[in-house]
Amino acid sequence: MTVDLPLVARGKVREIYAAGPDRLLLVASDRISAYDHVLPTPIPDKGAVLTRLSVWWFEQLAPVLASFGASHHLVSAAPGADDGVPASVAGRGMLVRKLEMLPVECVARGYLSGSGTVEYSRSGSIRDVALPSGLVEGSRLPEPVFTPSTKAELGEHDEAIDFAAVVTAVGAARAEELRELTLALYRRGAEIAAAAGILLADTKFEFGVDPDGGLVLGDEVLTPDSSRFWPADTWSPGTVQPSYDKQFVRDWLTSSGWDRVSEPPELPADVVAATRERYVTAYEQLTGSPFC
């Protein structure tokens, strides 16, 4: 997989290339990360699933963005010699607008899970968002909540922050805009997912600003890497839910005895196959189209 363009950055999953004065090429690899480490074993077709699902979601969410006077960064995912994705990365590349990215991960939660459960069990809240008593792992929240985090560098860990920290980072008006738009996008995403028999437990969005100051949805959107997807028909609060995301890999790593500090172990073939199946199932169930 070679691209004859200048490499701008390499993240846990994606390479970013310069594709002109105001364009970038985002290429999703088959790498998978967990606990702030990139694992040594790739998941076949993962990059293609992330790209195709993001492209689909950008289209679904465009009306919500427009209602806020916002937009998304996708220009094209179609291959093309002049103004498209290079043939060598077709299917896993997106041509996008270059933005000034905001230094905040915009997290929306509709259910209690993961780090949210840990913090809730300790304080009854997630940072400055108070939650009712009696919730357990997997509980549906009375209403979706905005629980932002820092945007960590490669190898570092995102840290939950309160709303005041978002205000400090981007200003009061922009912070309110991010909160309202994040929750609106989550609600629409959850509605679409529910119609496909999937619960959207939580997700993160990343936003940037275009040269005119307009708010733009960037990065990936509502994928198994950025979201927790649960089968609706097996939802049972009080325990860890089956999922269509990389929680399966996290669970295996935990059971393997890995210390999360040393180099992570290779994933067994059955874990790789089962993880690929979960990613593909998420794509097919959400979009109603076969992955091939």
TrEMBL record:
The keyword Nucleotide-binding applies. This is Phosphoribosylaminoimidazole-succinocarboxamide synthase. It is an enzyme of class 6 (ligase). Its EC number is 6.3.2.6. Belongs to the SAICAR synthetase family. Gene3D superfamilies: ATP-grasp fold, B domain (3.30.470.20), Phosphorylase Kinase, domain 1 (3.30.200.20). One of its GO terms (molecular function) is phosphoribosylaminoimidazolesuccinocarboxamide synthase activity. Keywords: ATP-binding, Ligase, Nucleotide-binding, Purine biosynthesis. GO terms for biological process: 'de novo' IMP biosynthetic process. The gene is purC. Residues 8-263 form the SAICAR synthetase/ADE2 N-terminal domain. GO terms for cellular component: cytoplasm.
